[in-house]
Amino acid sequence: MKKNMSIAIDGPAGAGKSTIAKLFAKEAGYIYVDTGAMYRAIALFVIRSEADYEDEEKVSEIIKDIEVTIDYKDGVQVVYLNGEDVNAFIRTPEVSRVTSKIATYTATREKLLSLQRNLSVEKKVIMDGRDIGTNVLPDAFLKIYLTASSDARAERRYKELIEKGEECSFDEIKKDIEERDRQDMNRTIAPLKQADDAILVDSSDMGIDEVVKTLMDIYNSKV
Length: 223
Prior knowledge:
Oligomer: single chain
Number of domains: 1
Shape: globular
Strand content: 15-25%
CATH superfamily: P-loop containing nucleotide triphosphate hydrolases
Number of strands: 8
CATH topology: Rossmann fold
Distance between the termini: 14 Å
Number of helices: 9
Helix content: 40-55%
Order of helices and strands: EHEHHEEEHHEHEHHEH
Largest sheet: 5 strands, parallel
CATH architecture: 3-Layer(aba) Sandwich
CATH class: Alpha Beta
């Protein structure tokens, strides 16, 4: 497995990266690695510690000795925080907000960077996140920048929460998404941006199957 056979998918919050990447990986015969889930695990630890996540020095101190690892069960990625399977706890709005902030901290990024790069050498992987193509896997075989309008992303998230029976506000969801975009795109370390050699895919008016087909067509044109 050559390092440059890895695939990087970047894009803003709510663009459907994880859903699309999982299906794309299955179709292309790759292993899906949700790097965002690793950051979410650290955010969960910070929340449970009741530390001020705005305090970079404090966060950097408390995460020094934590362990974040991943494994696969029946083809599904499982994230472990200090040995605990935390998949069921890392998808809340609170974790999302804290993740966006602590992902800007040098200590957080360094904690996970080596793990992510090692995975790309050891396995045939597709990774999605904010800076995979620009920072984590700059030599990736294929880079995709998957995006959608803020309205489209907010609508998807709104429907998802409603289907779960949760009360929510479309306007608040859109506001949170736009604020997260601002944070991700303006952070000092590894900001969210399209890599120079990444292919732009706008899924605003596309269904899931259509997006996966588009990515497979791009992939097949390169192999």
